[in-house]
Amino acid sequence: MSETAGVPNFTEVLHPLVQHKLTRMRMKDTSTASFRDLLREISLLLAYELLRDLPIEEVEIETPVATMMAPKLSGKKVCFVSILRAGDGLLQGLLDLVPSARVGHIGLFRDPVTKLPVEYLCKLPDDLTDRVTVLVDPMLATAGSAIEAVRMVKEAGAQDVRFLALVAAPEGARAFHAAHPDVPVFAAKMDACLDARKYIVPGLGDAGDRLFGTKDHRSED
Ligand SMILES: O=P(O)(O)OC[C@H]1O[C@H](OP(=O)(O)OP(=O)(O)O)[C@H](O)[C@@H]1O
Ligand SMILES: O=c1cc[nH]c(=O)[nH]1
Ligand SMILES: [Mg+2]
Asked: Pathway of this protein (predicted)?
């Protein structure tokens, strides 16, 4: 089992391309369009690591030259579950990698005062039991949203659950592991801490607002 900053089952994907793209996303002058493009690009690289252990089987194929036994993905199907809104920034890249995947959506927002997740949508495929279920949300801050989303997919029958994030806070990563020790987390970076508003430091601000351009973070103090 991997471990980062003392948190078991947490993997940082330290590839230079991932770290370079994350640095560009953190910069406050990065435009909404670039932020969106970078998140999509990074999702491919993170998912490549997260899905490294997908089972394969050998099948007989014919190339123009010879017959051979060649590897292909075996029966285990994948479901991506986006935690709205910001999870949608990771979703399209993942579907480019695994076009046959099913897709679920969980709508959660953090109450601005309590910082607790508030549910407004849950639409999941019927048959999660035999699927690899990958929850996606760029930000794991207090992990309240992630913990609740995993609870919801487990309640719907998911057994092989994984979590894909971009940036995590150590406080949130520890809380997540305490709640769901069986669920591996892959992220580009474990950051330093949370601030008084429960934002990740140094982080990148509010991922949903930056992805969709709903608030001009450059004017925030
Ligand atoms: O770990 P937590 O403390 O729960 O915080 C992380 C959550 O906050 C953000 O969503 P937000 O509530 O801003 O919703 P949005 O994606 O619609 O902007 C983020 O995308 C996570 O879902
Ligand atoms: O740093 C944070 C914390 C919660 N949600 C975000 O989008 N960013
Ligand atoms: Mg937000």
From this structure: Pyrimidine metabolism; UMP biosynthesis via salvage pathway; UMP from uracil: step 1/1
Alpha-helical regions (H) of 103-213: 144-155, 170-179, 207-212
Q: Which secondary structure element, helix H or strand E, spans residue 127, and what is its range?
A: none
Q: Alpha-carbon distance 210 to 47, whole Å?
A: 22
pLDDT digits (tens, 9 = 90+) for 109-126: 999 899 999 999 999 999
Q: Which listed ligand is nearest to 85 at the C-alpha?
A: 1
pTM score of the predicted model: 0.94
ipTM exceeding cut-off 0.95 for this assembly: yes
- In order of start, what are the domains of the chain with their CATH numbers? 2-53+77-212 (3.40.50.2020)
Q: Is 110 a catalytic residue?
A: yes
Contacts 24+ apart (CB under 8 A), 118-126: 119/148, 119/152, 121/84, 122/152, 124/79, 124/81, 124/152, 124/153, 124/156, 125/79
Ligand 1 in contact with 205 (CB < 6 A)?
Answer: no
Tokens of 208: 């949903």
Report how far apart, in Å, the C-alpha atoms of 66 and of each of 58, 71, 72, 78 are.
16, 15, 17, 31
Q: Whose CA is nearest to atom 7 of ligand 2?
A: 206
52, 63, 114, 221: which is the annotated catalytic residue?
114
Under a CB-based contact definition with an 8 Å cutoff, are residues 110 and 93 in contact? no
